[in-house]
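Progress against Task 2.4 (sequence-to-structure conversion) is shown through the following example record, which the project officer requested during the mid-term review.
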Amino acid sequence: MSQDLHIALTFDDNFWAPAYATMRSVCLFTHRHGDLVFHLLHRTLSDEHVADLRQIETEFGARLVFYDLDQSPLFSDIAARMPVNKRLTNIVYARLVIDRLLPADVARVLYLDCDMMVRAPIEELYDLDLQGFPIAAVRDVAGAIIVGGRDLRANRDIFDIADPYFNAGMLLIDVAGWRAADIIGKMEGYLKSGVMARIYYDQDLLNLVFKNNWLRLPFRWNLMDARAVHEALDPALLHYTGGSRPWHLVSNTAFRRTYRHVMTNELFYRFMRHRWKQFWRKQGRKLSGRN
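Structure tokens generated for the chain above:
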């Protein structure tokens, strides 16, 4: 008898289309459509975008569970106190409370960023033996720069760049082990000590919490900054972390054509129009602020 495959994503209303593409890629590359349960940790979504996402259920028979984080006092409290910048919104912190948001009977969950595309049966990753570790992840190729800065001297009192550092865009999570790590308790301590103001979002926090206590997976399960040249490596999971994204009109990302058709042409171009509208609104606000 098959077991459910629990997959969690976090996103806001501006990123609904990539979230759809990530889910659809999972569905397209597995025969276990009916076992898929997508837990969508999101900011409030428009009815139109919810309808788009629901097409995953219609096409594949997978299940979608929606969690409106704007209605969660726990998330709102954490997000209000954590550092943010213009590139990443505080939605990234939803990962920290994933064990508190998902149903109590979920023992394992696979977290995926929404700038990913899957190209292999997701159960090959989901069913891996965690060997007693609370999480499994892939080493971040930019880890030394992230924690050490340009001259690799920063934050030496917090990190040692000789330690392996994982990318948090894909995490295979044993929920009991995640809960036992007391991530929120440690976060509170780092907030008081000033450490949180010095580190890179929740990814640094998770690397501190799970230091040398995570299962290292092959790069094929999180190929970062995926470029066209990487296609020959036949990666299982592409992570578009670089400045070029597959939904950009000019892009050198791996499997860009495949990604476009995974998102579907109709949604791809609608997402393009949405992004252009957002861009020009932002430019208008900037001009208004100068007057």
